[in-house]
Design goal:
Layout: E1 3-7, E2 10-12, E3 18-25, E4 33-39, E5 45-51, E6 57-59, E7 67-72, E8 77-82, E9 91-100, E10 104-108, E11 112-116
Parallel strand pairs: 2-11
Antiparallel strand pairs: 1-3, 3-8, 4-5, 4-9, 5-6, 7-8, 9-10, 9-11
Length: 118
């Protein structure tokens, strides 16, 4: 099981920026697909962005051009740079680590709150 610890959330005005970080406790971090999800109050947890072991990235349409996911395998950390934030980006953001190796390994962080409000 991978322990994931998110940081970087907070309160920001519309149009502002935040960078989330997620540190993973594993010595095979480079083998994991990493992802960021978010969950707004009363809504389901939705995928925001993924970055594969080979660094290929994917984004949900609503954040394309504003958010950037990246990873530093030397630090076992994945990042989510969020620019031009909107009130609808307000949610708890969760880090996810997953990989397939005969069985599916899937771990979650505890979440970090992002609030976009004036």
């Amino acid at each position: 099981q991978v322990q994931l610890v998110e940081s970087g959330g907070g309160l920001v005005q519309p149009g502002g920026s935040l960078r989330l970080s997620c540190a993973a406790s594993t010595n095979i971090f480079s083998m994991y697909t990493m992802a960021w999800y978010r969950q707004a109050p009363g809504k389901e947890r939705d995928l925001v962005a993924t970055i594969a072991a080979g660094h290929n990235t994917n984004y949900v349409d609503s954040v394309k051009g504003r958010f950037t996911i990246s990873r530093d395998n030397t630090k076992n950390t994945v990042y989510l740079q969020m620019n031009n934030l909107k009130p609808e980006d307000t949610a708890v953001y969760f880090c996810n680590a997953n990989r397939w190796s005969g069985i599916f390994f899937n771990d979650w962080g505890q979440g970090t709150q992002v609030t976009v409000s004036s």
